[in-house]
Task: inverse folding
C-alpha cells in the first residue's frame, strides 16, 4: 500500500477504492429527512443500516466558496484564506470576487493526491469554483456551466455533453446539478478516477422548502446517482457547504436588515462600509442577501458605538469584533472587516436597499450565511470506525473520514 500523504497538517491514506466526495450545495438536513419520508430517496434511507450517518458543522460564513475550499483543503478559512464569495481587498481598496486562485493560501488535497500519482477528477456546477478547486491539479476539472467549452489541455477531458446525453443546462436550474452527477457517473465508468469531488448548486434549495414536490424530486434524482456510484464500487461521502432557511415573516415577505442604510442614517454617509460575502455572479435566487456581513469602520464610526447600535437592531443575532470573529470562526483577519454581523435564523442582512434587485425572488426568500445554517449531513455508504465520539465533526472532515476511517 502506498504511504499516506500530509496536506495542511493532516494525514490521508491513498484511496482503497474509487472515492467520491459530494458537496450538495445548500443541503439542509431536513431535505433528506423529508425525501426519505416521501419514499423518494431509498438509497439514502438505507445508509443508517448499511453505511454511516453523521452530522457535522460547516465553516462560517456558511457560504459556498469558504466551505468548498475547506472541504478540499481539510482546513478552515484561517488556513486556506477563502472567507467569502466576495470581499474587500484592502490592498487595492476594491470589492472583488474571491474566485482567483491567487487568494488561496493552502494546497488542496485534490492537487496533492494527483501529485502523488492518483487519478483525480473534479466536476462543479458553476464555473466560479473551477479555478479554485482545480488550482495546481493535474487531472480532470470542469464545470457543468461551461461543459460545452471543454479543452483537453485545460480541463483534462472533452465531449461531456455527448457523454452525458444532456443538453447544456441553464445556470438557474436543477439540471445544472444533475449534469454534475451524470458527468461524475461517466467519469467513474470510463476514466475510473481514484478520487473525485462533485459540487452542486443550491438553486433548488433557494427556491423550494424541504418536503415540497420539487425538492423531493431533486433529492430523488441525486439518490438514483448515489445508488449507481455505490453499485460501481465507489466509496461515497456526502456532505454540504451549508444549510438553508426561510428568511421571511409569517406572510412570506423577506425579513431584511439593510445595514448600510441604517449605518448611514446613524453615523453619516460613508462613515462605514458594509460588505456582503454572499455576493457572486449568480444573485437571481437570493438577491445577494445572506445572514452574514462584515463592516469596515471609518473615523466617524467608533467601534464601540457601532457595535452597540447594530447589536440593538431587530433581526441581528450577534456583532463580533474582528478578533472575536477570527477566534470563534477561524477566519483570516486581513480579509474581514472591523466587525462581523450575524443575522437571526429568519433574517438576512443587506447593504443599501437600492443595491439589491429583488425582482428575481418569485418565491419566498430562502438563504444562508449565519450560524443557523451551520449543521450539515456527513453520510457514507460504508461503515466507518475509529472516530472519537467527543470529536467535533466538520464538513471538511469528509475526505479524512472517507480515506482514513473505513471499517
Result:
Amino acid at each position: 500500500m502506498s504511504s499516506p500523504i500530509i496536506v495542511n497538517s493532516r494525514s490521508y491514506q491513498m484511496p482503497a477504492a474509487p472515492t467520491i466526495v459530494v458537496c450538495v450545495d445548500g443541503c439542509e438536513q431536513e431535505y433528506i429527512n423529508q425525501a426519505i419520508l416521501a419514499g423518494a430517496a431509498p438509497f439514502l434511507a438505507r445508509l443508517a443500516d448499511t453505511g454511516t450517518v453523521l452530522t457535522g458543522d460547516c465553516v462560517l460564513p456558511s457560504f459556498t466558496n469558504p466551505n468548498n475550499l475547506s472541504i478540499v483543503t481539510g482546513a478552515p478559512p484561517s488556513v486556506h484564506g477563502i472567507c467569502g464569495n466576495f470581499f474587500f481587498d484592502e490592498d487595492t481598496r476594491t470589492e472583488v470576487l474571491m474566485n482567483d486562485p491567487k487568494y488561496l493560501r493552502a494546497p488542496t488535497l485534490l492537487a496533492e493526491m494527483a501529485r502523488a500519482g492518483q487519478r483525480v477528477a473534479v466536476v462543479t456546477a458553476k464555473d466560479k469554483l473551477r479555478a479554485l478547486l482545480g488550482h495546481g491539479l493535474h487531472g480532470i476539472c470542469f464545470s457543468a456551466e461551461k461543459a460545452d467549452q471543454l479543452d483537453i489541455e485545460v480541463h483534462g477531458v472533452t465531449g461531456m455533453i455527448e457523454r452525458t446525453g444532456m443538453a447544456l443546462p441553464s445556470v438557474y436550474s436543477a439540471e445544472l446539478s444533475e449534469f454534475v452527477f451524470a458527468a461524475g457517473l461517466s467519469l467513474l465508468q470510463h476514466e475510473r478516477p481514484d478520487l473525485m469531488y462533485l459540487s452542486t448548486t443550491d438553486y433548488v434549495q433557494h427556491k423550494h422548502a424541504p418536503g415540497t414536490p420539487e425538492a423531493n424530486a431533486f433529492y430523488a434524482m441525486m439518490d438514483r446517482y448515489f445508488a449507481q456510484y455505490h453499485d460501481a464500487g465507489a466509496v461515497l461521502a456526502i456532505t454540504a457547504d451549508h444549510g438553508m432557511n426561510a428568511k421571511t415573516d409569517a406572510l412570506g415577505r423577506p425579513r431584511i436588515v439593510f445595514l448600510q442604510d441604517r449605518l448611514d442614517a446613524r453615523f453619516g454617509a460613508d462613515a462605514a462600509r458594509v460588505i456582503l460575502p454572499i455576493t457572486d455572479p449568480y444573485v437571481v435566487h437570493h438577491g445577494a442577501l445572506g445572514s452574514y456581513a462584515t463592516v469596515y469602520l471609518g473615523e466617524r464610526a467608533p467601534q464601540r458605538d457601532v457595535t452597540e447600535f447594530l447589536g440593538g437592531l431587530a433581526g441581528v443575532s450577534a456583532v463580533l469584533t474582528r478578533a472575536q470573529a477570527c477566534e470563534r470562526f477561524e477566519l483570516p483577519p486581513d480579509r474581514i472587516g472591523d466587525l462581523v454581523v450575524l443575522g437571526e435564523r429568519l433574517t438576512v442582512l443587506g447593504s443599501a436597499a437600492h443595491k439589491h434587485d429583488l425582482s428575481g425572488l418569485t418565491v419566498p426568500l430562502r438563504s444562508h450565511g449565519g450560524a443557523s445554517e451551520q449543521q450539515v449531513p456527513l453520510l457514507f455508504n460504508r461503515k466507518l470506525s475509529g472516530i472519537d465520539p467527543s470529536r467535533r465533526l466538520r464538513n471538511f472532515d469528509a475526505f479524512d473520514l472517507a480515506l482514513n476511517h473505513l471499517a
